[in-house]
Amino acid sequence: METAIEVRDLVVRRGRRPVLHGITCAVPRGSVTGLLGPSGSGKTTLLRALVGVQVVAGGTVTVLGEPAGAAELRHRVGYLTQSPSVYPDLTVRENARYFARLHGLGAAEADRAVRDVGLADAAGQLVGTLSGGQRSRASLACALVGRPELLILDEPTVGQDPVLRAELWEMFRAMAANGRTLLVSSHVMDEAARCDRLLLIREGRLIADDTLAAVRATAGTDDLEAAFLHLIRANETAPADVEESVR
């Protein structure tokens, strides 16, 4: 299995408190991998480590064959943060075209990204006037505009209505079918069913790194929420001294 991301014994601390406890996992190329877990489980901290903006206390993170955060990855990795990362005093179109220029691309690529996330009708609106879900999609357009090999998306469907959520997941699946790799975090367990592979995290510990079918088989149920609860109980013997508000 060719991997896009390899994490070995990753440890992150806040002061003296451990946030991530020696996490080891891999993300295959050309797949949609879901990073699932409740709010406060350490998902965002792990994603920050993958893009090289998180101080780590130990372990290694390799992304597309390079150390996380390496300059060579700048145009190969797209990162969508949980909070919108666009300029509120620019329109959706202006934001996308600005980010396109950073990649050496033109207006056509920017406009395509805006259409892909379903914001063509709002392209001329100031981002500051958009709803929360629309701002998230504007940020997603900016992450997509450079056609990165790897997309790291932190809760991209939060605040989206069911129709838009389904459309975004169709787009994610199409990207993977064309060879791109996506790591998508979520605390909504039904979104796990849309992924090829799952990373399940709780209190800074990885409790599963497997295919969807294997997670269901291990738990003995097709209900993903029940499977997650089963895996939690199976790991209850692990120390539980992690700060509950980990992000």
From TrEMBL:
Residues 5-228 form the ABC transporter domain. PROSITE patterns: ABC_TRANSPORTER_1, ABC_TRANSPORTER_2. The keyword ATP-binding applies. Keywords: ATP-binding, Nucleotide-binding. SMART domains: AAA. One of its GO terms (molecular function) is ATP binding. InterPro entries: AAA+_ATPase, ABC_transporter-like_ATP-bd, ABC_transporter-like_CS, P-loop_NTPase. This is ABC transporter ATP-binding protein. It comes from Plantactinospora sonchi.
